[in-house]
């Protein structure tokens, strides 16, 4: 299995440049060390034990998950300090209890009195304490309680009254994906920090210990100049990076560690099209660069060695067909590669493209596959 | 397992209304019987043995697949007459040979001299014949050879010279998804028929038997008024239908057989938002209705029984979060449902949403789950 080269792979197939990934991890770890803050990597991008271990520095450490299925899987592999970073619901409490019973230190999140009552009720039925962070809205992007809201103290008190441990606060500055300059990213990082620390201070003034102040997104983590008052950073997509991150200026295209290996299956020369066997099933339907200054279609085309063919993108995708063309649409500029030629396609969004695949074919700046790493999915 | 009701499911979870699916299948089978044409359902939408059997009338029949993984899986379950409807590449010929060796009647497709040479070369190394259809471009949408092209006869002759059996021709009128009226759909169905029959006639005039004339898309199959000269129809998405099909007028919203069960996890009342635990991982990132007159966001919201709340859609989606709001954006019109309430979300594109899930929870116009059917993915 591991002695194959990529020209022997059936396409489409997901490739991972391990050296590139290691550099991305080192960059994030160095940044967080410089800022003197803890790291709780988000494993929802990779969903793979080998990669989570690399993100954690070689041995299991604190992680963030997006599903309880991820919590099960990473707990099976020795990760015991897990933050489940999606608001909890009653239908998941049985699953939560099963994780707590196997000695996983699982932390939940919530952002409403409703959910606080759900947790309090569940806590009453369990022999071990439930631990939760209160989600803070730092940017109007999605979920969370505003730091100034009276609900913040009401939720904390409801939890305490119900026997739930209030671990502190957490936020995610999702709006950072819409920033259009380095200054805007730095300002968003500071806003994320300041708003979340403010919420923690209000809880502490009301008598809650609230030791944890958890923030995180890849852009704010890398652009933060200070994280005073923050105890841990969550970030995930940095491990691979992607075209959305490159469009934000957070990384370069050369830093992108995953790509989809594909094969030319035909041409429509009148249209300037090259047809490949990577459609949306292999790339995902993510069009995250559509709102950016440079729209990369369904992905940026590279030669088989991973060198970007800067002006060629997947302009259209069906389930198992991709249409590669010059980005200016010129019919005279088709790629003239014979049927059977291989290409690599860089993804708009690493989380979405990764999720379409069951495994990573690991390479190291060479066509030789050094490992095959499985990944999980589902709930 | 099968005695559960949907309120006991961990969300998000994929639901399948079996009665609805049966009606959709009956409609397509009756239409094709009326048109006196064979049926080779595309199983790429469902990727599930129970559903493929229902599409085939209860016992294995001819099917169309989009991956060789599907061919393996359906062959394991007794389907032996399989059309692999994506242009073939050299790196898949070992897999093709393995399928042929287990007595699967696998038919390949191609649309170029390059690919004809690949097949001829592979055929020379195999003890059994390879059979192929030539893909025809009927609408400028994606792949295929124009019916009038000299390449058509060149490809056929290259195949014959290489010992490959020329089964006939096939096409897919992908442009039907962009039609905006019943008349346009009828015209596209006739164009698909006429262009493909023309190609078959040219092959026959040149001395090839070319017995198979295969066409198919759900909209053209349902709007065709005559399929004279066509021998079989391929269609897949009709089994579930979806919001894109409803937007085309091919079905009604009530005909949509799959939905994603989700739970309210919070609210942002200042924005008019209800936050649910179905994000793009559960819905896919497909935005197929964005180009239609009615944009359904990432999906149309229904109550837990499946009754559409016509004005509520998933306006935004992150990996495991969906934001539900009124389609006019009015903040005063938020759904006021407590945390823990369940909803169903209808998909833009059944193929894409289905692919995000490992199984169907089958229901019959009731909250009781009658079966759990597994589905496959990958390549």
List the helices and strands and how they pair.
The structure is a homodimer of 379-residue chains.
Chain A: E1 13-17, H1 18-34, E2 38-39, H2 49-55, E3 63-65, H3 68-76, E4 81-84, H4 93-101, E5 105-110, H5 113-124, E6 131-135, H6 150-161, E7 165-170, H7 182-205, E8 212-215, H8 218-223, E9 232-233, H9 243-248, E10 258-268, E11 273-276, H10 280-283, E12 300-302, E13 308-317, E14 322-326, E15 342-346, H11 350-354, E16 359-363, E17 369-374
Parallel strand pairs in A: 1-16, 2-9, 3-4, 4-5, 5-6, 6-7, 7-8, 8-9
Antiparallel strand pairs in A: 1-10, 10-11, 10-15, 11-14, 12-13, 12-15, 13-14, 16-17
Helix pairs in contact in A: 5-6
Walk me through this protein's architecture.
- 2 copies of one chain form a homodimer.
- Chain A is elongated, with a radius of gyration of 22 Å.
- Helices cover 29% and strands 23% of the residues of chain A.
- The first copy, chain A, folds into 2 domains: 19-239, TIM Barrel; 253-374, Lyase, Ornithine Decarboxylase, Chain A, domain 1 (Beta Barrel).
- With 379 residues, the first copy, chain A, is of the alpha/beta class.
- In chain A, the strands form 2 sheets. In chain A, strands 2-9-8-7-6-5-4-3 form an 8-stranded parallel beta sheet. The first copy, chain A, has a 6-stranded antiparallel β-barrel with strand order 10-11-14-13-12-15.
- In chain A, helix 5 runs parallel beside helix 6.
- Chain A has 11 helices and 17 strands.
- In chain A, 58% of the residues are buried.
- Chains A and B meet through helix 5, strand 10 and helix 10 of A and helix 5, strand 10 and helix 10 of B.
